[in-house]
Amino acid sequence: MRSALYADRMGETVVDTITAVWRAESARLVGALTRITRDLDLAEDLAQDALLSALESWPTAGVPDNPGGWLMTTAKRRAIDTFRRAENLRHKTELLGHGLTEEDGMPDLTSQVDFIEDDVLRLIFLSCHPSLTPDSRAALTLRLVGGLTTGEIARSFLVAESAMGQRISRAKKTLADARANFELPVGDERAARLDDVMTVVYLIFNEGYTATAGGDWMRPELTHEAIRLARMLAGLIPDEPDVHGLQALLELQASRSPARVDATGNAVLLDDQDRSLWDELLIRRGLAALDRASRLAATGKPVGRYYLQAAIAAHHARAADPSETDWRAIADLYDVLAQAAPGPVVEVNRAVAYGRAFGPEEGLAILEGVSLPGSHLPPSVRGDLLDRAGRHPEAASAFREAAELTDNESERALLLRRAVDSDHGASS
């Protein structure tokens, strides 16, 4: 029974079960309702009404065998009631209510899979419409596809709930003003939009993996949500290598999370991490996704930046000890990545790889050509390379410069500790 899949956890309350169901089913629900009503705001309102009905009903009546079907049927009945109050209600009532009677019971969502999966994909593309800014795309994706509340999204991005609510409302209005339709894009437009979708998922992951501001080094709820979205995307678009590459990249990077902070909550650098703490299940899943991408690439399908970054992450995942890392292979992959997706962040990471593979001076030479104003990344990498070159006073200065530029308190503390260590290296 599907309800057992959600509720079979020790000590879980019905409310916890409803939350789990909502996370798993909300994208299907909102997507299907948007297709039916052609109104995103109405679809979300109907889905929320169904959720409230579950919160009122399930604690006493019990969790139904098909929770998603229960929510869908409840929302469709609310839609019928809504259209009955409209002037054109007869046509839409017949359209929505066709074949649906009280005796029919709850529909089985699996019988609607052809529509349901397309609905989710449509919703993902709609959330990442080109008329929206990257931040708005991320917020709307988490809201509509991830099923997160406005408060949860606001806390994740360290903004007030009212401000996040306004951002989401503006995004919906922008979609309405742009007359964004609910149809799947095709051809070149689909390829461009898919890249936007993957960029948003990666943005969400990066914010969780290394928070841009605040006191926490990581925000696990965002990394978990991004991985869930990446897996969903890989299931919906299984013939694109870079989609599987994205999933592989996120899972391989996230596998390090248990070792990225020490017992007191301080950030831990990659070389200093206890690799026995890395999540082996995520590594296996990530390598399997990378293998799927490689098999697709072998048929002639092009790969992109996420596949290449996943291949780099795989080298780290396969190294049981930092000394076993094949930095020359990583440097070669960064050379390819710099051609496929050129940009200053790629160059910063390429400088790291060259510094490890061929010596710190080689890395510093690459870094000289990087312009990333206001970012802490270039000076932090410069500090590391200078430290490895034995130029400790310069390294300490670079680490302090980087510390002034970051808004993340945990990262600032790490950079200042490295500055102190470099000072000690200079005096020894």
TrEMBL record:
<dbReference type="GO" id="GO:0006352">
    <property type="term" value="P:DNA-templated transcription initiation"/>
</dbReference>
<keyword id="KW-0731">Sigma factor</keyword>
<dbReference type="InterPro" id="IPR036388">
    <property type="entry name" value="WH-like_DNA-bd_sf"/>
</dbReference>
<dbReference type="GO" id="GO:0003677">
    <property type="term" value="F:DNA binding"/>
</dbReference>
<dbReference type="InterPro" id="IPR013249">
    <property type="entry name" value="RNA_pol_sigma70_r4_t2"/>
</dbReference>
<dbReference type="Pfam" id="PF08281">
    <property type="entry name" value="Sigma70_r4_2"/>
</dbReference>
<dbReference type="Pfam" id="PF20239">
    <property type="entry name" value="DUF6596"/>
</dbReference>
<comment type="similarity">
    <text>Belongs to the sigma-70 factor family. ECF subfamily.</text>
</comment>
<protein>
    <submittedName>
        <fullName>RNA polymerase sigma factor</fullName>
    </submittedName>
</protein>
<dbReference type="GO" id="GO:0016987">
    <property type="term" value="F:sigma factor activity"/>
</dbReference>
<dbReference type="InterPro" id="IPR014284">
    <property type="entry name" value="RNA_pol_sigma-70_dom"/>
</dbReference>
<keyword id="KW-0804">Transcription</keyword>
<dbReference type="InterPro" id="IPR013325">
    <property type="entry name" value="RNA_pol_sigma_r2"/>
</dbReference>
<dbReference type="Pfam" id="PF04542">
    <property type="entry name" value="Sigma70_r2"/>
</dbReference>
<keyword id="KW-0805">Transcription regulation</keyword>
<feature type="domain" description="DUF6596">
    <location>
        <begin position="193"/>
        <end position="293"/>
    </location>
</feature>
<dbReference type="InterPro" id="IPR013324">
    <property type="entry name" value="RNA_pol_sigma_r3/r4-like"/>
</dbReference>
<dbReference type="InterPro" id="IPR046531">
    <property type="entry name" value="DUF6596"/>
</dbReference>
<feature type="domain" description="RNA polymerase sigma-70 region 2">
    <location>
        <begin position="25"/>
        <end position="86"/>
    </location>
</feature>
<feature type="domain" description="RNA polymerase sigma factor 70 region 4 type 2">
    <location>
        <begin position="123"/>
        <end position="175"/>
    </location>
</feature>
<dbReference type="InterPro" id="IPR007627">
    <property type="entry name" value="RNA_pol_sigma70_r2"/>
</dbReference>
